[in-house]
Design brief:
The chain is elongated. The chain folds into three domains: about 15-45; about 50-115, Roll (Ubiquitin-like (UB roll)), CATH 3.10.20; about 120-250, Rossmann fold. It has seven helices and eleven strands. The protein has helices spanning about 10-45, 65-70, 85-95, 160-175, 175-180, 215-220, 220-225; strands at about 55-60, 100-105, 110-115, 120-125, 130-135, 155, 180-185, 195-200, 205-210, 235-240, 240-245. Helices cover about 35% and strands about 25% of the residues.
Length: about 250
């Protein structure tokens, strides 16, 4: 019969003490780690390290970055933990040109603002100021400046809102690549045709047409221009049929 090894209690006590000491040390390290993490978080939150330093804005074409930052109350570099995304989104969306907005806070110091604007089709002149016109023909008189933002055309002489709304709808349906070529749109109503308009283009041409069906007829403009002799300027008529009238024709 094999003899059992007997370990005395005196031999076991040092090992038990060592095991307890290791366990206590691990527990102390754990609690100290938590403590220092909490202290670091508190220092970060209450120090300039958590102030907003970077603001990324996307989706805006007519509303400046500076205006969006002002609306969001971020121009004083507030603490990123004190700002409310819901409040900022509400304040920015309250601006007439902003259709929707989404804000994301990215620690430690960045705020991402993504906006979607209403389609701005042009500007009208009121006194010495330019007032934006939206896709529905609405003039935003609360927003006026002495300069026009972006490539939207200047819309002139539309004394009747009905025709301004019709024109705005046509501009909305026109590809932006062509709309951006338009410098000015003049309403030139005739007794037999109140839809008459005259356009001045950024490339030096003029376009004679009508509001009715304008977006569809104007789509041929790039094709017509591409077929004209280099340096030739004149009026492109897009009424019943499309044809070119040179400025040098003598007419």
């Amino acid at each position: 019969m094999a003899k059992k090894k007997i370990v005395s209690i005196e031999d076991r006590i040092p090992k038990l003490k060592q095991a307890r000491k290791k366990k206590a040390n691990r527990r102390l390290v754990f609690y100290l780690s938590i403590f220092f993490i909490l202290i670091s978080v508190i220092i970060y939150i209450q120090s300039p390290l958590s102030d907003v330093k970077t603001i990324n804005i996307t989706g805006n074409h007519h509303v400046t970055d500076e205006k969006i930052i002002e609306l969001a109350l971020l121009d004083d570099s507030p603490n990123i933990w004190t700002i409310s995304k819901k409040t900022m989104e509400k304040d920015i969306k309250g601006y007439p040109l902003i259709q929707s907005v989404n804000i994301d806070k990215k620690l430690p110091q960045t705020v991402q603002i993504n906006v979607e604007e209403y389609d701005l089709v042009g500007y009208v002149k009121q006194s010495e100021y330019y007032v934006p016109v939206l896709e529905n023909g609405e003039k935003i008189s609360d927003i006026k400046s002495k300069t026009m933002q972006g490539n939207a055309p200047l819309i002139l002489d539309f004394t009747e809102d009905t025709y301004l709304k019709k024109m705005s709808k046509e501009l909305t349906e026109l590809p932006k690549s062509i709309r951006n070529l338009i410098s000015e749109i003049h309403w030139t109503p005739k007794e037999d045709n109140k839809n008459k308009i005259l356009l001045y283009m950024n490339d030096g041409f003029m376009v004679d047409g009508t509001i009715r069906g304008f977006s569809k007829k104007m789509k041929v403009y790039p094709s017509i221009v591409s077929q004209l002799p280099e340096g030739e300027k004149g009026i492109i008529h897009i009424g019943v049929g499309a044809y070119f009238e040179s400025f040098t024709s003598g007419e």
